[in-house]
Design brief:
Largest sheet: none
Shape: elongated
Number of helices: 3
Radius of gyration: 19 Å
Structural class: mainly alpha
Helix content: over 70%
Distance between the termini: 53 Å
Order of helices and strands: HHH
Length: about 120
């Protein structure tokens, strides 16, 4: 695998992280708007729990993004071209991809449940 393909793979991972971050930001904004209008203790406790989950996920996304960017910089500093498929960089990219797939799946389940709860609150 050459450097250009590694760059494309890493850029793709960053794009996936950005999409998760954007969707999460939309939910956070919706939550803030809801808190402006709802004062029930039950909903405030739920909102605080959701907010903590958002903060935890943001930290995970930032750490993973940092690792991916560091790997990209490491690859950029290498003088030789990387052509073999079973090297440490390809394995790291696969690991990052697995982590992003996990985060994306977990986020999708969480997001669906959160949106359903929003619908119940707004009604």
């Amino acid at each position: 695998m050459n450097k250009e393909q590694l760059y494309k793979d890493l850029d793709s991972l960053i794009i996936k992280l950005n999409l998760i971050q954007e969707e999460q930001t939309a939910i956070k904004q919706k939550l803030s708007g809801l808190l402006d209008n709802v004062v029930s203790n039950q909903f405030i406790a739920w909102a605080e729990e959701i907010h903590q989950q958002i903060l935890n996920r943001e930290v995970a996304l930032q750490l993973l993004r940092k690792d991916i960017i560091a790997l990209r910089k490491t690859i950029a500093l290498k003088k030789s071209v990387i052509y073999f498929a079973e090297n440490q960089y390809v394995k790291l990219i696969a690991k990052f991809n697995d982590q992003i797939v996990y985060l994306d799946n977990e986020f999708s389940i969480w997001s669906k449940a959160t949106v359903e709860k929003f619908a119940l609150i707004v009604v």
